[in-house]
Write a structure and sequence with these properties.
The structure holds two protein chains of two kinds.
Chain A lengths: L2 H18 L21 H15 L6 E5 L7 H4 L3 E4 L5 H11 L4 E7 H7 L1 H10 L3 E7 L34 H8 L3 E6 L3 H13 L4 E6 L3 H7 L5 H11 E3 L16 E8 L5 H13 L14
Parallel strand pairs in A: 1-2, 1-3, 3-4, 4-6, 5-6, 7-8
Antiparallel strand pairs in A: 5-8
Chain B lengths: L10 E6 H12 L1 E6 L6 H14 L2 E4 L3 H13 L3 E6 L1 H17 L4 E8 L5 E5 L4 H6 L8 E3 L4 H18 L3 E6 H5 L1 E6 L44 E3 L13 H16 L2 H4 L2 E4 L6 E6 L2 H14 L4 E6 L1 E3 L3 H8 L4 E5 L6 H9 L4 E5 L9 H12 L1
Parallel strand pairs in B: 2-3, 2-4, 4-5, 5-8, 7-8, 12-13, 12-15, 15-16
Antiparallel strand pairs in B: 1-9, 5-6, 7-14, 11-13
Helix pairs in contact in B: 1-2, 1-6, 3-4, 10-13, 11-12
The chains are: A alpha/beta, B alpha/beta.
Bound molecules: thiamine diphosphate, iron/sulfur cluster (SF4) and magnesium ion.
Magnesium ion (MG) binds next to α5 of chain A.
């Protein structure tokens, strides 16, 4: 083979890789390698998100991503978007401020189960109640990954965690039920086995107006699986595959999770409700008449 | 640049300090406030909530101060001038996010209408006992700017200064009111917008790709800013970061970043410090005061002068950075400093530190709940000259 031919093939290969890896344009390539462990599911969710971004056809300059703190909290830093790595639990209120200050942006919150439902639990409830126009992706690995595998509000009863060394005796949150009860307009759960469905949910979420909550079950082989002898990342994905039951429209009350038990996945909620800003604009227009100029509607800018 | 007329309520008003502070913020261009009610600060957000719909901007009452103090930072990175407002218990909850504002250099004004503490303390009564919290309350090294108005008029005027300082230096600015200043009603004159000088954000003019959000030069330690949606695809993190905003958790990166954050204020303290002096030249004793206590101190100073005592008054309009240079100069010329404040010894520590034994420093402490009686300050002035 001539040198030229070799070069050509190499270039072809490069081109093909670039084509085949649709994620690359969405990543800050100068920040790779990432910090995630082999077999971790967070990267898979990011792949899904990148696919959702492509399929949404949205202008990347109009999308901001906000994370809290944790392994999942690092997602913001790897995406080539306006990205904010905030404090533990506070991604939602930061995102709320960003959205209200700059209403034409689509603001995505991407964070871990502990971040969003423990320390940040209150913000989750209230953002859903207000129907703040945010899309929240919650990567649920049933544990506090970043700090070494402590018990989380999502840890099912049973497995051990470093701070539940004799097994978790607490009950866990059913996050879709929580989000739905508080007023989220779109609620879905998928696992990293369901990459197509997860990407589709994310795309729908990007295009939905109002508070969107997507739970993505994701293995943490390093801590959760190893500590509980559940094998590696692949074993956990096998479990997702074997025990998931797709039930679109399921009553979220019935989708609670148990330790290594059945997983109900699907799009559970998809409804309409005025967002916080719509309600504000409508109300002030009614009460204040022409003294009030609707905020953030024209061209997205006030 | 001049104030946006939409926010300026030009005229002569009779209003309390809380309301005046709100008007100051509106005049300065504040268009996003996230708050959580707490006495004695609530009137500020109540007024903002009533005024902002017709001025053009947003108020949101968040679920707690943790949320309010980070929502404003989302607001700032969304392009708005922002403020949050609270008092002791709420300010304590905000401390983590004060730190986030330091490390991310997010322009933001933080109003503390001080009440008696610790804990729930005296919700409806004054104190000045959060002065050291303002300086040291969040973890890590940083340098804050803190102002202390002593009247409703100053709540208006200094609020504009507070916004101008936060935009100039990209450091969170604490606005240290107290219950008395917040609730006292006096004449407040709001000038026409063209007479109000406001500092715009230090926007970058660089194109996407060329711009590094935390890049500075030796001559100018304050980076240029952008906002989400302008195409720069910025990354902002509370982790130690490099000029690109990327996490850089190394000793050299920490050294570079934290030193810049601290020294951008320390090295420029002379430009920021603001003291108002009255009769300090030739004085034997100088009363050093701030906030509401400066007005009581003035009464004591006048009484002392009537007794023939040579007493000066130095009022710190800005408490942090501390006017160290001026205090050091004056220490060589006077017998004593008298420091009244509504706490059991906070700013006096800073006076002592800079006087360094060269003159006497007498504290007039007060546990809070009301202002001093001028007599107790007068007694200390007399003790100082004995
Ligand atoms: C105020 C505060 N408390 C505690 C921590 C330590 N901390 C960092 S990440 C984390 C838990 C993260 O768990 P989760 O949100 O589930 O994210 P994961 O790492 O599992 O993706 C904790 C407790 C912190 N950074 N800040
Ligand atoms: S600790 Fe767990 S969650 Fe964190 S990167 Fe490793 S596998 Fe993923
Ligand atoms: Mg987790």
């Amino acid at each position: 083979m001539s040198e030229e031919m070799g070069l050509e093939m190499e270039q072809d290969l490069e081109r093909e890789c670039a084509l085949e890896n649709p994620v690359l344009p969405y990543l800050r390539q100068d920040r790779i390698p990432h910090i995630w462990c082999p077999g971790c599911g967070i990267g898979t969710t990011v792949n899904c998100f990148a696919r959702a971004l492509t399929e949404s056809g949205m202008n990347m300059d109009d999308i901001a991503i906000v994370s809290g703190i944790g392994c999942t909290g690092r997602v913001a830093g790897y995406l080539n978007l306006d990205s904010f790595h905030t404090t533990h639990g506070r991604a939602i209120p930061f995102a709320t401020g960003l959205k209200l200050a700059n209403p034409h942006m689509k603001v995505v919150v991407y964070s871990g189960d502990g971040d969003l439902s423990a320390i940040g639990g209150n913000h989750l409830l209230h953002a859903a109640r207000r129907n703040m126009d945010l899309m929240v992706v919650c990567v649920n690995n049933f544990t506090y990954g970043m700090t070494g595998g402590q018990v989380a509000p999502t840890t099912p009863t049973g497995p051990t965690q470093t701070t539940m060394p004799y097994g978790n005796f607490e009950s866990s949150f059913n996050l879709p039920a929580l989000a739905s009860a508080c007023g989220a307009v779109y609620v879905a759960r998928w696992t990293v086995y369901h990459v197509r469905q997860l990407a589709k949910a994310m795309r729908e979420g990007l295009q939905k107006k109002g508070f969107v909550f997507i739970e993505a079950l994701s293995p943490c082989p390093t801590l959760y699986s190893r500590r509980n002898r559940l094998g590696d990342g692949v074993d956990q994905v096998k479990y997702y595959k074997e025990r998931s039951i797709v039930k679109n429209g399921a009553d979220t009350k019935d989708v609670g999770l148990t330790y290594q038990g059945d997983i109900v996945v699907g799009k559970f909620v998809d409804r309409e409700r005025p967002t916080w800003m719509d309600s504000m604009n409508e109300h002030f227009t009614k009460v204040l008449g022409n003294k009030f100029t609707p905020y953030g509607v024209e061209n997205g800018q006030d | 640049m001049q104030a946006d007329p939409k926010g300026v309520l030009t005229g002569i008003h009779f209003m309390d300090g809380d309301h005046a502070a709100c008007e100051g913020a509106l005049a300065a261009g504040c268009r996003f406030v996230a708050g959580y009610p707490i006495t004695p600060s609530t009137e500020i957000v109540e007024r903002f909530a009533a005024r902002i719909p017709t001025v053009g901007g947003v108020f949101i009452q968040m679920e707690d101060e943790l949320a309010a103090s980070i929502a404003i930072q989302g607001g700032a990175w969304g392009g708005k001038k922002v403020m949050s407002v609270s008092s002791g218990p709420g300010i304590s909850l905000m401390m983590e996010h004060l730190g986030y504002a330091f490390i991310t250099e997010t322009p933001s004004v933080w109003v503390n209408v001080q009440r008696g503490g610790p804990s729930t303390g005296l919700p409806t009564q004054p104190a000045q006992a959060d002065m050291m919290q303002a300086k040291w309350g969040s973890h890590g090294d940083f340098e804050v700017i803190a102002l202390a108005p002593n009247s409703p008029q100053e709540c208006f005027d200094l609020m504009i200064t507070a916004f101008n300082l936060t935009e100039t230096w990209r450091v969170p600015v604490m606005f240290m009111m107290d219950e008395v200043v917040g609730h006292m009603t006096e004449r407040v004159e709001i000038p026409p917008p063209e007479k109000i000088e406001v500092v715009d954000r230090k926007w970058t003019t660089k194109k996407p790709g060329e711009y590094k959000p935390f890049e500075t030069t030796p001559e100018d330690p304050v980076p240029f800013m952008t906002k989400a949606g302008d195409g720069h695809r910025i990354h902002v993190t509370g982790l130690t970061h490099d000029e690109r905003g990327y996490p850089a958790m190394t000793v050299p990166a920490q050294d570079k970043l934290v030193k810049r954050l601290v020294y951008k204020i320390r090295d420029n303290a002379d430009k920021i410090v603001d003291v108002r002096e009255d009769g300090v030249e030739g004085a034997d004793v100088i009363v050093v005061s701030y906030g509401i206590t400066s007005r009581v101190a003035m009464a004591a100073v006048e009484q002392a002068r009537a007794k023939g005592i040579k007493v000066g008054h130095l009022r710190m309009v800005i408490c942090w950075p501390f006017p160290a240079k001026r205090i050091k100069e004056l220490a060589k010329k006077v017998k004593a400093f008298v420091v009244p404040e509504i706490n059991l010894g906070q700013m006096v520590l800073e006076v002592e530190r800079h006087v360094a034994g060269v003159a006497k420093v007498l504290h007039v402490g007060h546990a809070g709940g009301t202002v001093h009686e001028p007599d107790v300050i007068l007694e200390k002035i007399m003790e100082a000259v004995r």
